[in-house]
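Try this one yourself first.
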């Protein structure tokens, strides 16, 4: 299967000021930070994307135009976050062996869950004081930087009505995830997510996401590389963005 993603545009919207001067956003990548956004902070992250998908085994070609929305809210304390993630797609699909064309329009992702930070290596400021005598000690790599912040996630997927992307799935299916985040240096951050999705369905999914980001000296700019893998059932086919084709009957 060959996939080409032409573009993802990000428009973060924040309704309250953050408790830091840097917005904690999961976009434009797919990985999820281990940290919550802060107590009583409400944040919206929005993006649009276009995807061309060629599936040789299913003999299909698809063009997908979609919109992503993430709503995040800090509950009770700084380590707990409530979030909603939704992706609404319009797919034009052609079966190359017959020439038949179909259109599918619905949510390819529609879920809500809670994320809780269970371990933060930077929680104790006494253990992370800067070295006033060495630039290298402050900005160089240390083995202890490999120790990540760790959070756990529990939530549910919702399939409403006759969704062509998930025919046969129950209305509600659980999802669990482990998220880690390591600050390798002040400019390099490594994030990993391991999730078990659609529990209790005929086609549960294991997926992982690993992201490495680097911040430039100008704080407005950064670059990242990301890899995602999905292991699902033998019939449903998923793209690297987590979007799945309809069942093949």
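Now uncover the answer:
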């Amino acid at each position: 299967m060959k996939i080409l993603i032409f573009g993802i545009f990000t428009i973060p919207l924040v309704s309250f000021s953050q408790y830091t001067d840097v917005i904690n956003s999961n976009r434009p990548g797919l990985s999820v930070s281990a940290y919550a956004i802060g107590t009583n902070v409400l944040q919206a992250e929005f993006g649009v994307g276009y995807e061309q998908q060629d599936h040789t085994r299913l003999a299909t070609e698809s063009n997908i135009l979609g919109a992503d929305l993430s709503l995040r809210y800090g509950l009770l304390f700084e380590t707990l976050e409530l979030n909603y993630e939704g992706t609404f797609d319009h797919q034009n699909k052609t079966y190359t062996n017959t020439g038949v064309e179909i259109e599918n329009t619905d949510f390819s992702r529609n879920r809500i869950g809670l994320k809780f930070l269970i371990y933060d290596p930077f929680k104790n400021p006494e253990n992370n004081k800067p070295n006033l005598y060495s630039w290298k000690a402050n900005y160089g790599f240390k083995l202890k930087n490999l120790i990540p912040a760790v959070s756990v996630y529990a939530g549910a997927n919702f399939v409403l009505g006759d969704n062509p992307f998930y025919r046969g799935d129950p209305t509600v299916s659980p999802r669990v995830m482990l998220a880690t985040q390591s600050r390798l240096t002040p400019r390099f951050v490594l994030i990993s997510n391991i999730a078990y999705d659609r529990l209790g369905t005929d086609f549960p999914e294991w997926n992982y996401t690993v992201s490495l980001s680097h911040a430039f000296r100008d704080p407005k700019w950064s670059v990242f590389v990301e890899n995602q893998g999905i292991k699902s059932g033998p019939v449903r086919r998923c793209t690297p963005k987590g979007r799945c084709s309809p069942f093949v009957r």
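Discussion: The CA atoms of residues 38 and 78 lie 5 Å apart. Residues 1-20, 235-243, 245-249 have pLDDT under 50 and may be disordered.
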